[in-house]
Automatic annotation (TrEMBL):
PANTHER family: SLR0698 PROTEIN. The active site is at Y30 (proton acceptor). Residues 2-155 form the CYTH domain. CDD domains: CYTH-like_CthTTM-like_1. This is CYTH domain-containing protein. It holds the Pfam family CYTH.
Length: 174
C-alpha cells in the first residue's frame, strides 16, 4: 500500500539555491479537488501531472498531517494532456528543485502564476519520527496548514492570501 510520510516547510532564505541538483517544470490539475474535499464529499484528491514529457495520475488521501496514503501511476502523455485540459478544476504550475542534504531529499517547489511568491520545501521520510537535517534556510513547518496543500492552491491561490497567512500564521484551514 502506498504511504507518503512528508513534512512541509516555508523557506527562511535562498541558501538552498546553490544546492539544487536539478529542476523541472510541473503542471498539475485536480480531477477531484479542494471543494469536494472541504464539503466532505471526497476522501481523496485525484491529480494529473505533466513533467518532463511524461504524465502521471496521483491519488492522495484527503487528510492533514505528516502521513497520508498516496498512489501514483504513469499514464500516456496524450491522456494526461487531455485530462489536464478538459477535466481539471484549474492548472497549478511550479518549478521543482531537488536538493540532497545529509542523505535527505528536499523537493523545493517554486510556484508560478497566481501562486508566484510561494516557495515551500518538502522532505519525504521513512517514518513519522525519522530525523532529518534542518539547514538554516529551512523555515517554519506548515505540514498541518491545509492552505499550503497543492490541491487547495488551485481554488485559493497565494495571491489572495492575507499577509498573516503568507507568514505561515493562522489555523489549519485554508
Amino acid at each position: 500500500m502506498g504511504v507518503e510520510i512528508e513534512r512541509k516547510f516555508l523557506l527562511a532564505d535562498d541558501g538552498w539555491r546553490g544546492l539544487a541538483e536539478r529542476s523541472e517544470r510541473i503542471a498539475q490539475g485536480y480531477l477531484v479537488a479542494g471543494a469536494a474535499i472541504e464539503a466532505g464529499h471526497a476522501k481523496c484528491s485525484v491529480r494529473v501531472r505533466l513533467s518532463a514529457g511524461r504524465g502521471w495520475l496521483n491519488i492522495k488521501s484527503a487528510t492533514l498531517g505528516v502521513q497520508r496514503h498516496e498512489f501514483e501511476y504513469p499514464i500516456p502523455l496524450d491522456d494526461a494532456e487531455h485530462l489536464l485540459r478538459e477535466l481539471s478544476d484549474g492548472v497549478l504550475e511550479k518549478i521543482r528543485h531537488h536538493v540532497m542534504l545529509d542523505g535527505a531529499h528536499f523537493e523545493i517547489d517554486e510556484f508560478l502564476g497566481d501562486n508566484a511568491g510561494l516557495v515551500v520545501a518538502e522532505v519525504e521520510l521513512p517514518s513519522v519520527d525519522a530525523p532529518y537535517p534542518r539547514p538554516a534556510w529551512l523555515g517554519i513547518e506548515v505540514t498541518e496548514l491545509s492552505r499550503y496543500y497543492n490541491v487547495n492552491l488551485v481554488d485559493r491561490p497565494y495571491a489572495r492570501w492575507s499577509a498573516r497567512e503568507k507568514e505561515g500564521k493562522g489555523d489549519a484551514s485554508c
